[in-house]
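Sample A.
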Amino acid sequence: MVDKVILDSMSRDCTFKLRDTISQYIFPIAKCSRPIVVLCIGTDRSTGDSLGPLVGNKLKFLVRNKIHIYGSLECPVHAKNLCQIIDEINYTYTDPYIIAIDACLGSLQNVGKIIVEEKPLSPGAAMNKDLPKVGNLSITGVVNISGALEFMVLQNTRLYTVMMLADAIANGLYHSILKTVGGRKFDSNYDDFNIKDVEC
């Protein structure tokens, strides 16, 4: 598999390319019934940093066995509670496969692009925050240009760009789960699926 895939959220086939890319990684995970955790990082208090919570909100109806979602507009996973949430995930699930989703800043030509890498992401890197790396697979959306005053850049990011990225990522993930895990499934333990309420 390719180490790094960059997709344009504005392209018409982005959802399908993202679906196929993610499916390559999670198919063997789903096949062995390893729990998959979608960790949507960010805060609704900043337009540029709201990508993760928006994706979490859009995926809240992704009801499947062994699929768990952390982070939404109501209960975001952000700098103040990230370490606690990572500890909770590792305590709750045996060998979870974590798909970490976050916004990032980048070059002008990459704004609106989705980057998929088989490696952990570094939350808060744009803000020089010292947070633990997280994720077996990282999906980042380039929401604006990196440079000086990055806090202000995130605050003044266009919601349109963030929404286009969130729609593309959520749709790609949804269809990859359909492709690899299949239709809606339940078992006797309803907790096999959960959108986790975190301390906001």
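Sample B.
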Amino acid sequence: MEISLAEIAEGYSQNINMLKMAKALSDSGNTEALAQSAKTVDELKMELSNTSKSVRREALELKKLEDLKLENAVFLERLHYVMENVPSKLPQQNQKAAPAQQIRQEPDQRPEPVKTGISQVQMIGCQYLDFLTVDEFKSIPKYMKGRLTYDKVNSVIEKLDKVYVEKYKIRRHKKSSLNDLNKKRFEGYRLQETEDTKGVPFIVEQDITDFSSLKMDSALRNIFTILRHCGLVFEIRGGGYTRFGCYTRY
């Protein structure tokens, strides 16, 4: 059972009043009894003062504990939010570069990693495109997303990135080293290139058909609209082709 400071003070006050009354009723000649009463009163006053200080200290400690409890509650709430919103695919941490028209660098000219004698940790992610973050997906207008989910869009990004990889794997080879099928593809890639595509990695609808299970239907076109909205790809039209270029990351 908790006792307040006021109750403690009231108890001491009653004791003091009783002693005062005893002092008044005592014989004025009994100096020894009066001295003892005065001493008792002083001791009670000192004890009351010490008790008051202890109560104030305990009150301050209780306030600190209440503040700490509140901070922990806020931290737990944020932690639960993070745990519930961790994306199944984490994006690369590379910062998006300027548009490819401003940075003219072929994908096959990327610098090789520096060999330091320490085993390199393989990065999990895409070579040409970035996965969308949760915040980027939330920023997409609702009419544009429709029923598309965050995981669905990133799954398509992963497949499209493999299309870029397979195409430029062929494009980096010498034509003479390729088989007949890839020689035809190699020649087709050269015919698709223009001055506007110089240094720009791009794919066309036929590449998507050749190197993935995706179909260029309304759903995929809608996803390309989302990727353009998020600044991952852009279109280069001309010569009967719609080219989906991606921004240079290096």
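B remarks: The longest helix spans residues 31-84. DSSP finds eight helices and three strands in the chain.
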